[in-house]
C-alpha cells in the first residue's frame, strides 16, 4: 500500500491506472489487517498522506494535498483507525461539563496511568544505545513538535482557544526560533550523532510510533474531533514534566551535557505550567462552552495515555530482552 502510494505521488496529480490500483489495494488491506495500530504498511501510508499537509517528508507536487484520491485514501484509513481506537481505548466516566470537574477528572486519569516506566528505566539503566533509539523514535513527532495540536487553533473559540495559543506559543519558542522545542530537540539528535533531517528515521521506527503521531494528526485535522485533540494535549502535558526530568537524568548519567539534556530540562518546568492551563482552560473551557464535546475530550485523553503507553511498552520490552526496539535497527551508533 505505501509503496503504491509513493509511486502515485511521484507522478503528477492526474487520475489514472495507479490511482485505481491504490483504491483497490487499500480496500483489500483494510479488510485483511487485524490490528491497524501495529500495521507497518497502513500506518506508513497514513503518515505519508498526513505529510502532504505538513511538508518536510516528500518532495512531491503540492496539489496532492487536496487531491480527491489522496483525501479518499486518508479518510478510509482514518475511519478504520478511529474505529479501532474507539473499540479498544477505555474511557472513564464523564465528569460534569465544567472546568474544575474536567480538570480534576483528567488529573485523576493521568495519575492512574500505571504502565511500565520507560522514563525510570532511562534514568537508572539505559545505555547510550538505548538513549539513541529513544531519540530516534521520538524524532518522528518531536521534530514537528506542537504542529499536530496547532491545527485545532482555528477550530476553537474563547477560553479554550486562548489556552491553546498560550501553550503553543511556548512550544514554538515564544517568538525566538532558537528556543522552538523542535529546534532544541534537533540539537539533542546532533549531540548523539544522529541526522536531524525530518523523516530520516521513518523506516526505522515501528508502526505504533507512527500510530501515535498519526492519531494526533487525525484529531487535529478533523474539526469534528476538536474535543479529542484538546483532551489529547491535556493528557500529553500532564504526563510530561516528571518523565522529562528522569530522561534528563539518564542522559547526564551517560556523560551527556546540557546541550543534549536541554530539551528535557525545558519540559520539566514548562509542562508543569502547561498541564494546569491545558486541564482547566483548554479542556475544561471547551467542555463548558461545548458540553457535547465532553465525551471526545475524555476519549482523546485516554487515547493519548493508551497509545503512548503501548509505544513505551514496545521499547522497554525490547530492551529488557536485550534487543533493539527499532523496526530496522541502527547499523552503528548514530547511523540509521
The CA-CA distance between the termini, in Å, is 24 Å
Globally, the shape reads globular
Give the helix/strand class.
Answer: mainly alpha
- What is the domain tally? 2
Q: Kindly report the name of the CATH homologous superfamily of the largest domain.
A: Heme oxygenase-like
Mean pLDDT: 93
Taken as a percent bin, the fraction of beta residues is under 5%
Count all strands and give the number: 0
Major beta-sheet overview: none
> What percentage of residues falls in helices of 4 or more residues?
55-70%
CATH-assigned fold name of the largest domain: Heme Oxygenase, Chain A
SSE ordering: HHHHHHHHHHHHHHH
CATH architecture of the largest domain, by name, is Up-down Bundle
Low-confidence stretches: 332-336
Quickly count the helices.
15
Q: How much is the radius of gyration in Å?
A: 20 Å
CATH class of the largest domain: Mainly Alpha
Structure, described:
- The chain has 336 residues and is mainly α.
- The chain has two domains: 2-88, no CATH class; 99-320, Heme oxygenase-like (Heme Oxygenase, Chain A, Up-down Bundle).
- Helix content is 67%, strand content 0%.
- It contains 15 helices and no strands.
- The chain has helices at residues 2-9, 17-32, 40-54, 68-88, 99-111, 118-124, 128-142, 147-150, 158-171, 181-191, 207-221, 226-238, 241-253, 258-289, 294-320.
